[in-house]
Amino acid sequence: MNDEQPARDPVGEDARIDSLEERLKAAREREEKRNKPVAGAEADENYRAGNRVLAELLGGIVGGLFLGWVIDHFAGTTPWGLLVMLFLGIFVAFRNIIRMSNRRPD
Description:
- By secondary structure, this protein is mainly alpha-helical.
- It has a domain at 40-102.
- It has helices at residues 15-35, 41-75, 80-102.
């Protein structure tokens, strides 16, 4: 119906546009690699370290409570043995956690 050419011809391919597209494609590929989930040893090592921190914290608290209860039960010093051993267990747990965090990775 309309035999006229459009007022503007489409712009031909430009080397700069091709270069830009190639750089964008490379950047997208790098970003996909960077955002890929960590698999294998690093994730397992972090998981083990977190479990060890949790075990140290719970072990210190529960161990201190148990030892304090035993001391109170046999010595009749309720509640002082429990409180002293609880705080000692918490102190030891935090000391161990700090020592683990300051250790250099192998």
